[in-house]
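A quick aside before the break. I want you to see a complete sequence-to-structure record at least once, exactly as it would be stored in a machine-readable document. Don't worry about memorizing anything.
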Amino acid sequence: MAWSESKAWVAGADNAPLYANLLQEATEAPERNAGRRKVLKPTDMPWEMSRQGLLKHLLNEDLDTRMETVDAYMQIIPAGSRSGKHRHLAEECLYVLEGRGYDLHQDCDVEITDTYFWKPQEEVKRFEWEAGDVIYVPPNTIHQHFNADPDRPVRLISAINRIYKQCGLNDLEQLEDAPEYDPSVVLDGDRIREYLRAR
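That is the input. The structure line, written in tokens, reads:
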């Protein structure tokens, strides 16, 4: 052969239909997607007692919807309470459905070489918000949501791009749990109403 490296690249006897599988998956996508849900009813959206707080998942890759790139949940923060505190590489936006409060954000310096390293900056910034506002959380920012109303709950809708996780960048780290977090609690409508009446 004319190429000097041919002794190296012709080695190996394994065969695999990787391109054929990709093509087959693309061919079958319309039929597969036709069976995936475009509308979810409230009963299709699972509750979760999470370390981040009380969540109702609206869109998630485990819910078998047509949505390929976005995860979304509704978060309920009881009167005078707060969410957990966490950090993730993906940027996030939250729409404030009801209530008022504030966020604490702490930017991080990031270094990505053969390892991934982040270090919180000294400054913690406070951002006030109320119903109708959109909260933007930049990539790799430590953040936490606080309900400033001692009598009424806050409801937020969070949307985050799933593509980070699919690219192997699911850098999610929980730094503090929400006060309500109790892994033994099973959430349903009645239990959520109890949290809304608390205080």
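Two observations worth writing down. Residues 82 and 146 are 4 Å apart (CA to CA). The first strand starts at residue 47 and ends at 50. We'll return to this after the break.
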